UniProtKB/TrEMBL annotation:
Upper lineage: Bacteria, Pseudomonadati, Pseudomonadota, Gammaproteobacteria, Pseudomonadales
Protein name as catalogued: Anti-sigma-E factor ChrR
Top-level division of the source organism's lineage: Bacteria
Ranges where the ChrR-like cupin domain occurs: 101-190
Cited Pfam families: Cupin_7
């Protein structure tokens, strides 16, 4: 069960088609596994269709979307039945193979990476898969910009809590953390970065000039 979700603004931007392809992919992967957020997006899609039909008669207040979404949140969500025919996920379409058999490159300590930015031509953000070995620790770091991450496999923990498979998290330059992979399998995440991370450890900070 997912516990960490995209915020209301991100879902609104996704529904409106205003997100970059990498950011939209992160939310789509989350929506594929989270009925709660799917319900919110379905409502936003319906609302957007009504507004398009009735323009310019509909006046949208700043609190309109939050009020609608809060009503959805107050209703019990029902998990849909599993589809009878397996679907090829957006991630499988993008990568075409199993996550663990990708050509990973060891970056630092327990962390391996695979930069897939070139699969999103014309995008400004860096798109990278990161693998943290089971029980391993990532170097302490902060962010020079915004980082959007979704957990694809396993789980990690930091000072904000535990993030399991399909959980969604956004970090900024105000966040500093040192993720630890929890459980018995490697933790694999997909991240979209507007700027490179900044290592903050006593020794690892010397490597910052070499980080893309």
């Amino acid at each position: 069960m997912t516990r960490h979700h995209p915020d209301s603004l991100s879902l609104m931007e996704y529904s409106a088609g205003n997100l970059s392809e990498p950011h939209a992919l992160c939310i789509k992967l989350h929506l594929d596994k989270c009925s709660h957020c799917r319900s919110r997006v379905d409502t936003l899609d319906s609302l957007g269709a009504v507004m398009m039909e009735q323009q310019p008669k509909v006046t949208v207040s700043e609190s309109m979307f939050d009020n609608i979404l809060s009503k959805i949140d107050s209703e019990p969500s029902v998990e849909p039945a599993a589809p009878a025919v397996p679907r090829v996920s957006a991630l499988q379409k993008l990568l075409g193979e199993d996550l663990n058999s990708l050509p990973w490159k060891r970056q630092l300590g327990d962390v391996s990476v695979l930069d897939i930015t070139d699969r999103f031509p014309g995008q400004k953000e860096q798109v990278v898969l990161q693998k943290l070995a089971a029980g391993g620790k990532a170097p302490a770091h902060t962010h020079r910009g915004e980082e959007t991450t979704i957990v694809l496999q396993g789980a990690f923990a930091d000072q904000k809590g535990v993030f399991n498979q399909w959980d969604f998290v956004v970090l900024t330059d105000e966040d500093e953390h040192k993720p630890v992979a929890v459980g018995c399998e490697d933790c694999i995440t997909l991240s979209v970065l507007s700027a490179p991370v900044k290592l903050t450890g006593t020794f690892t900070r010397m490597l910052n000039p070499f980080i893309r």
